[in-house]
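Researcher: We're teaching a course module on how sequence relates to structure. For the next exercise, students receive a sequence and then see the predicted structure as tokens, so they can try to spot secondary structure elements on their own. Here is the exercise chain.
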Amino acid sequence: MLKRKKEAVIFTDRLHSIKGIISLCMGLLSVISFIALAYVSSLSRGNGSMLLGFAGMALFFISLVGFYLGIKSCKEKEIYYTAPVAGLIVNGICAILYFTLYIIGISL
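Model: And here is the predicted structure for the students to work with:
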């Protein structure tokens, strides 16, 4: 006996926000790049080049842009809020982490 596929019934007009998805991707890129930079810095025993510091500052700005996109996408109507909220959380934590590391680097 053959089984029929159930027809997909959609009761909502919600879509996934492109800005929210980009925000989440930027947050994940920031986390993965931070782990890679920490590994490279540990290989050089904390005496990394200026390029590592520049990459860290670039990741800080990527997190800020991702946070901004997450805020903008949360203001949109009729969207799923999973990706924008996850992007806000990841980018917010990363931005706070990068800012804290920056302040600690200035004070040392």
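Model: If you want an answer key for the exercise: Residues 16-107 form one domain. DSSP finds three helices and two strands in the chain.
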